[in-house]
Write a structure and sequence with these properties.
Elements (H helix, E strand, L loop, with lengths): L2 H13 L1 H11 L6 H29 L14 H31 L8 H28 L9 H29 L41 H17 L33 H4 L2 H5 L4 E6 L2 E6 H6 L3 E8 L5 E10 H7 L8 E5 L8 E4 L1 H4 L5 E6 L2 E2 L9 E3 L12 E5 L3
Parallel strand pairs: 1-10
Antiparallel strand pairs: 1-2, 3-4, 4-7, 5-6, 5-10, 7-8, 7-9
Bound molecules: ligand MTE and molybdenum atom.
InterPro entries: Mopterin_OxRdtase_euk, OxRdtase_Mopterin-bd_dom, OxRdtase_Mopterin-bd_sf, TAT_signal_bac_arc
Pfam families: Oxidored_molyb
Protein name: DMSO/TMAO reductase YedYZ molybdopterin-dependent catalytic subunit
Length: 417
């Protein structure tokens, strides 16, 4: 290192002296041992990888590459994958905080700058931590539909997911020897002797790094106690939110914004007719569904649709934000409607809503859904005509699709050549 940079490093170290000393003291705390970092890190990696896989799946369903056939069974597939995505994302909050708490003293290890390799390793950790914190934070904000950030949630959440997974791969690669050493309790190095429960202060022989230490308030915090606390916190945040999609946990759902069974016709509403600005057009006596094919336009009034054969489908709404619920829909099969106009869909249908703005005003429905016998232009929900907030006079409902694709307040359906 040149003398200029080493002088700079010296000066930095002197400036950080108090922080470095505090961190050094903290590093000898058993809950900040490599073993704890590995135990918490493993759980966090599982949560992140679960989020990554289910998140990519969700993006594929919303923006399908044309060549990929999309699954329509089991009908609850997206309910499970997206429910898991949000549950794992929520679980990662306490795990991420616990992991940062466990390893933060290492960020202040000396030398602060060090060799190029060490600097690169620390930079990758900085990227991982920064991206993970932002990723989890905007995910939570999205669940409560609080779009305080000035960018597209979907695109940034997806891009950051790649950054997190990429820097996680580097991090795991760099730390692999340490991870292997501390993978099992038996196989670890120096701190294998940490007593599970507080056993007292270090004796004169001085296994000081191993023995539980008193914290500032004079209490003992053992590693097992710390991990138990993390487990309880994680279980608590999951239990109090997963009820938005898991029926058994519904009574415990205090934090998730949507509640199973609560809403018009016993089903939550994501965006109301007022919010979408469709109240007048949706209730207009002039309303008719336009079906456009390469050979012309057909118009179906509500009475025309009601006069066609009606089919019942029991299908869930599964919102990307993590809530989901099954409902009973009744209406005209999409295949029956297409047959009526003599159209065979070879490309995605273009489904337009009465809504004039917003990302979900127009959606595409690939042929595998359009041809599915369960897919409906629904007119009724749970035994009565669709509530205005659920898409009156007509909406689409198809199996195994993200809620955002279940377009409400239909205006037209276009079959392209
Ligand atoms: N036209 C239109 N359709 C829409 C939406 C919308 O904002 N506009 N929201 C979608 C979303 S995100 C979900 S989860 C479902 C929710 O359906 P529900 O409000 O009837 O429960 O509707 C979908 N259909
Ligand atoms: Mo949604």
């Amino acid at each position: 290192m040149s003398s200029v940079t080493s002088r700079a490093a010296d000066r930095l170290e002197r400036a950080l002296e108090p922080a470095l000393r505090t961190a050094e003291a903290a590093a000898s705390d058993p809950i900040k041992s490599p073993r704890t970092a590995v135990v918490v890190g493993r759980l966090l990696a599982i949560a992140f990888l679960t989020c990554f896989a289910t998140g990519l799946f969700s993006h594929v369903l919303q923006d399908p590459p044309g060549w990929l056939p999309l699954p329509t069974r089991p009908i609850d597939l997206y309910r499970w994958t997206q429910g898991l995505h949000v549950i794992a994302g929520i679980a990662s909050v306490p795990l991420l905080l616990a992991k940062l708490w466990t390893v933060y003293p290492r960020l202040f290890e000396r030398p602060v700058l060090g060799s190029a390799a060490r600097f690169a390793e620390r930079a990758s950790i900085a990227v991982l931590v920064g991206a993970a914190l932002v990723e989890v934070a905007i995910g939570l904000l999205n669940i409560v539909q609080w779009y305080v950030f000035p960018f597209s949630f979907r695109r940034v959440h997806l891009a950051l997911a790649w950054v997190v997974v990429g820097s996680l791969a580097i991090h795991i690669g760099v730390k692999l020897p340490l991870i292997v050493r501390h993978w099992s309790r038996a196989g670890q190095g120096a701190d294998a002797a940490v007593p599970a429960e507080p056993a007292g202060r270090a004796d004169a022989a001085g296994t000081t790094t191993a023995a539980p230490r008193a914290d500032a308030a004079g209490r003992f915090v053992s590693r097992r106690g710390f991990l138990g606390g993390v487990a309880v916190a994680t279980a608590a945040v999951v239990a109090t939110t997963a009820g938005q999609t898991v029926g058994l946990l519904a009574p415990l759902n205090v934090f998730a914004p949507r509640r199973i069974g609560v809403g018009p016709q016993g089903l939550p509403v994501n965006r109301t007719a007022v919010q979408a600005g469709v109240t007048a057009t949706a209730t207009s006596p002039e309303w008719a569904l336009e079906v456009t094919t390469p050979s012309g336009v057909s118009s179906f009034t509500l009475d025309d649709l009601r006069a066609m054969p009606q089919t019942v489908s029991v299908l869930p709404i599964a919102c990307v934000e993590g809530w989901s619920q099954e409902a009973t829909w009744r209406g005209v099969r999409m295949v029956d409607l297409l047959e009526r106009v003599g159209a065979v869909p070879r490309h995605p249908l273009v489904v337009s809503s009465l809504q004039t703005r917003g990302a979900y005003a127009v959606t595409e429905m690939p042929p595998e859904y359009a041809l599915d016998p369960l897919t409906l232009v629904a007119l009724e929900l749970n035994g009565s005509p669709l509530d205005l907030d659920h898409g009156y006079p007509a909406r689409v409902i198809a199996p195994a699709r993200p809620g955002v694709m279940q377009t409400k307040w239909l205006r037209s359906i276009e079959v392209t050549a």
